[in-house]
Request: fold
Amino acid sequence: MRYVEEFRDPKAAKGVLAAIARVADEIGATKEKPVHIMEICGGHTHAIFRYGLDKLVHEGIEFIHGPGCPVCVLPMSRVDECIDLAERPEVIFTTFGDAMRVPGTKTSLMQAKADGADIRMVYSPLDALELARRNPDREVVFFGLGFETTTPSTALSIQQAAREGLTNFTVFCNHITVPPPIKALLDDPHMVLDGFVGPGHVSMVIGVHPYDFIAEDYGKPLVVSGFEPLDLLQSVLMVLEQIRDGRAEIENQYARVVPEHGNPISIAAIDDVYEPRPTFEWRGLGEIDASGLRIRDAYRAFDAEAKFGIGYGAAAGRAVVEEPEGCACGAVMTGRCKPTDCAQFGTGCTPEMPLGALMVSSEGACAAYYQYGGARAVEAAE
Reply:
């Protein structure tokens, strides 16, 4: 299959691994003093562990797992607000399946559904629009969740609802953006980061220039990467070569998919429907300025927070909820520790009985360690 098989070629991978080892030696990277490379995207984290890349690269390279899983960075308070909406008798609450098992303070959407709430999994916000058309006597709420990758489809759905005059369709907006949390991590004096593997799907929408500040203001290299083994290995090599050469640039390894300036149609839809929130809460990072999106006043009729008076739209303000005792999701999500450093990993927190979101989401670092590390990962945690 073109654009897949050639990026999984073992012979080619051996050649790139040899080049990585050579450059790592030139830099002086060792197991004791490794080069710290953060892969921002949760999809990259899973690819690294699925293909065992963390075991194949030079021992002087350490992968730091970043906050690139939108379900994982959602604070428990937002899950509670979802459940508040879903339990209202007039509401049909629609969501992607990834969010169903993420625990709030008392329950999850899946448990709320089992208890009688009308919660339906959908594949697209257009599915939620169709439910609104078919159920004019019900309020259909779509759980708008994700980075810039999924934001355009929600924006286009809101535009379509406005054209049709659908008054029973709203979006509970939890769309967030990648650059602000990366800036927050770079501003953290305790974080040691030498370079970044940048997200491919997000960059397909926004292009590469929103990351310019990483190189210009912080002197760190970033390489936008694809998701196949050779994509990631080549991106790591490109980061190492920049470090060796004393360069800090934004490079695009994934040029076959990612245009320099992104997708103008998607960007236009986002700009039309959304504006930056003054601040938004992230799991493990707290409130970050201008890191989330909210629905503009022109589309206020489709804003669930405004219509139902919850979350940032609540008159009394939002409740801030602490992580469950023993849960290290925040620390893992911000690269401060590995999943196996958490005392609950594989014992008190499993995919069947998760304590935190990172064990549930298909992009969560804990799920990657558990799924691809298996018993070895559990033993390491013990």
Summary: The first strand starts at residue 35 and ends at 41. The mean pLDDT is 92.
